[in-house]
Write a structure and sequence with these properties.
heterodimer; A: alpha/beta; seven-stranded mixed sheet; 10 helices; about 25% strand; B: mainly alpha; 16 helices; flat
Chain lengths: ~260, ~450
Amino acid sequence: MTVIHPNMADEGAKIRARDVCVFYGEKKAIDNVSLDISPDYVTAFIGPSGCGKSTFLRCFNRMNDTIGAAKVTGLIELDGEDIHGSRMDVVQLRARVGMVFQKPNPFPKSIYENIAYGPKIHGLAEKKADLDVIVERSLTRAGLWDEVKDRLDDSGTALSGGQQQRLCIARAIAVDPEVILMDEPASALDPIATAKIEELIDELSGRYAIVIVTHSMQQAARVSQRTAFFHLGKMVEYGPTSEIFTNPIEERTKDYITGRYG
Amino acid sequence: MSPITLILIALGLGLLGWLAGRAKAWSFQSSDPALRPASRPIYHAWYVALWVVLPVLAFVAAWSVIAPNLVLQSVLATPEAQGLTGLGFERDAFLGEARAVALGQAPGVFNDEAEPLIAPFREAFGRYNTIGIIVTVLIAIAGGALAFLRLAPQFGARTRVESTVLMILLLASLVAILTTMGIFASLVFETVRFFGMVSPIDFLFGTKWGPDTMGSPDAVDPSRYGAVPLFWGTIFIGAIIAMVVAIPLGLMSAIYLTQYADPRVRAWIKPLLELLAGVPTVVYGYFAALTLAPMIRNAAVALGATNASTESALAAGIVMGVMIIPFVSSMADDSMAAVPGAMRDGSLAMGATKSETIRRVLFPAALPGIVAGVMLAVSRAIGETMIVVMAASQAANLTANPLEPISTVTVQIVNLLTGEQSTDHPATLSAYALGFVLFMVTLALNFIALRVVKRFREAYE
């Protein structure tokens, strides 16, 4: 049974998920999850490994489509529009819902080309000058501009791990998405790089709806305002982060955040 | 008595040694059940057997070289041989005939002079065979006894057997390397001889190829050994026409198979494509010569070309390109599969379509591997012989017209070495020089390609 804290009921919803199930072949990875993602807050998905939180996140930009055996049922709406509907183009959906992965995955191209990739394929810039503006703005928002402005032609793969991850965030920002999905964005980084990413998430929230999957409960507590706890493919509890961490309703949530299992 | 007999004797004695070693090792265990021998009985058995067989093999290898000489010397020392007339090869012929009769390989002699030598040969063979067998048995027994006496409960037979096996494996792997070095050395040797007659400058930069196979070896005309038309023909057929066919088709089929094809379709098409690589090149050759070349000529004539040949570069090049498709395709396939899935996901998550992802991310990332694959394919194509022998021309023209006859390095090598020239004629030696150039070029291509592939792998692992 899912517990949803009552005082979130009248918030607007950027993404509405209803009765979402995900199957990998015969295995049910996500079991009847329903929740609303607020446009104004950072929402964190927490839970032990294998609980399905990343799988659920990948539903929002239909990245599960790329896995042949995966099948998604139920309703997911972006601004009231069914993302599986015939009027929704997956290319457009992914331009509106950006994603940052667990391991930094810059393309083996220059820093400039990494950022320009999205705007080019979506035709956002007519001239080189427009593209330059987008590249600078995206890198600035990702807090990377000062570090790389003199070497935009260097390969993106030559940057440090933390810089690569911020490059990937800048790449996602470059197409001006409405939602940014982050799948354990700091789990491959050292503590200093992690702190920078968390700072960045803070700065970006409000401008973009952000959903972050994380292993680290401290990280969820630091960066998010809403937290959903997943266990064995089910959403156990969803509410304001402060309440989930200080006053959880469900026994399983309490056990997890106090470190009794997971 | 052949070396085979000696080896069979050694193996028989080896088996005896094996049984004896095992029996002795068993006796250790049965004499004291509390004893834990350092090695199991089977290793003691092998230890003795190896000590019997390996020294004998070394002796047989040496003996099979030495014995015929000893036989010859002893025959020449006999009074019958003193009266032998003739010089040089005539004398060798008499001796050869007599030896063949003595060994029972020939029914009788052709030259009467050889007749009196048969008996001395028989006598010498008999003597040295006996010596060979006695020495073989002595070595086997000595080796076996030495090993047998060393066996003891705490004797480390296993480690010794294993290190011997290791040495045998090492020798086996050295065979391939030594063979390559031997081939290279013989090429260099003959090439240097050729360059003593024709200067390397004339050979590498001359534009007329027409070795005078009938001319006197003493009056060499260096202007007939200009290999540029052959190098050009080889590059034109193997690296240009063949690649124009193989690169696009190979890459497109790799992209289709790795990115788009349904697994069931892939399971059918990929083995079929790889079957192309298994077609004997001589079959491609007659397809090129008998089917494609006349078609191309007729098409060219119909379009108004006046000098179209049935030995056109185009036919050989196209068929060679088809032959190369599986190589390009499978290298491109591997390279694209080596690009991490995270890269593809990153692009798809940006809203790129599958084709944009392939063109802008996967393909550029896989490019070093693909380039290396193409280089390996080129090195195969320029060394390919059968297709061009059958479909290309003997005439070494320096032309860029694909409809004209053109010749390649490999075609000329085949021509020059299948004729009836003496081995020290400059025309024959020029084949070695051509082979040397070809060897160096393909070696360089393979070397560079393998380095590129290695760096490429490291970049993603």
